Automatic annotation (TrEMBL):
The protein's name: Phosphatidate cytidylyltransferase
Pathway the protein acts in: Phospholipid metabolism; CDP-diacylglycerol biosynthesis; CDP-diacylglycerol from sn-glycerol 3-phosphate: step 3/3; Lipid metabolism
Principal subcellular localisation of the protein: membrane
Highest taxon in the source lineage: Bacteria
Family membership noted in the UniProt record: Belongs to the CDS family.
TM region positions: 20-40, 52-71, 83-102, 114-135, 156-175, 181-200
GO CC, alphabetical: plasma membrane
GO terms, biological process: CDP-diacylglycerol biosynthetic process
Subcellular localization: Cell membrane
Enzyme Commission code(s) on record: 2.7.7.41
Alphabetical keyword list: Cell membrane, Lipid biosynthesis, Lipid metabolism, Membrane, Nucleotidyltransferase, Phospholipid biosynthesis, Phospholipid metabolism, Transferase, Transmembrane, Transmembrane helix
Reaction(s) catalysed (UniProt annotation): a 1,2-diacyl-sn-glycero-3-phosphate + CTP + H(+) = a CDP-1,2-diacyl-sn-glycerol + diphosphate
Length: 249
């Protein structure tokens, strides 16, 4: 709901009342979706969940094109609030279902299996961010997306990918994930690419909205979306790859 509130600002909702309604509607919609599923059956093979995960994959491919061709691509959505709200829905709702699908992974056999997967994705994104920051500071010379986020470099991007691959190998070796190392590394690297895209996409929308942070909920760190922008892409993409593409469920 907080993420929906902040996305309202990115969508051009200047009115506080409008953003409150948006957050309430989003929360109600997610609650109603949960009630359509049987208990402990939030797995990716269910149509309600799989549909959102596939939609997320399609959205992030589209977002990649928007980022690559920004600012020219902004002409397609800059003046359309419904379209920007749709982008928000495709960002927030699949993120929710991705977390639910991963958390319910083999739940009946092992109540903590899904927790390991969520922990893995979070470590993956945080580790990639740290690797990108260090590589960028030490070697960064070539801008990754100067029109969207001038601080990011190709060297940092490469450092993030290397970090994610190492994290995947370490988790495959020491954590009870029961997935082949090669599969895990592929999912990890692609999800890291998605996490970078999630960050760049939010930066693009903030740039268009003329704001530095998505909110002010966390003093000194911006809003909720500023903290989870990478995860909003990485989680559903990882869940889609792991549970639907490689069918490890």
């Amino acid at each position: 709901m907080l993420a929906a509130w902040e996305w309202g600002q990115l969508s051009g909702m200047a009115s506080r009342q409008q953003r409150i309604w948006l957050a309430l509607i989003c929360g109600l919609a997610l609650t109603l979706m949960l009630f359509t599923l049987p208990p402990y059956e939030h797995n990716a093979h269910l149509p309600q969940v799989a549909g959102w995960l596939w939609a997320s994959l399609a959205w992030w491919i589209a977002a990649l094109l928007l980022v690559l061709f920004y600012p020219a691509s902004a002409a397609l959505w800059r003046t359309s609030r419904p379209l920007r709200l749709l982008f928000g829905a495709l960002t927030v709702i699949p993120f929710f279902w991705g977390m639910m699908a991963l958390r319910q992974y083999h739940y009946e056999a092992d109540h903590f299996a899904g927790a390991w997967w969520l922990l893995f994705v979070m470590f993956l994104v945080w580790g990639a961010d740290s690797g990108a920051y260090m590589f960028g500071k030490l070697f960064g010379k070539h801008k990754l997306a100067p029109k969207v986020s001038p601080g990011k470099t190709w060297e940092g991007f490469l450092g993030g990918l290397i970090s994610s691959a190492l994290i995947a190998v370490l988790f495959a070796s020491f954590a009870p994930l029961s997935v082949p190392t090669g599969t895990l590394v592929i999912c990890a690297v692609i999800s890291t690419l998605a996490s970078v895209l999630g960050d760049l996409t939010e930066s693009m929308f903030k740039r268009e909205a003329g704001i530095k942070d998505s909110g002010s909920l966390i003093p000194g760190h911006g809003g909720i979306l500023d903290r989870i922008d990478s995860l909003t892409a990485a989680v559903p993409v990882f869940a889609c790859l792991l549970l639907l593409v490689f069918q490890t469920l």
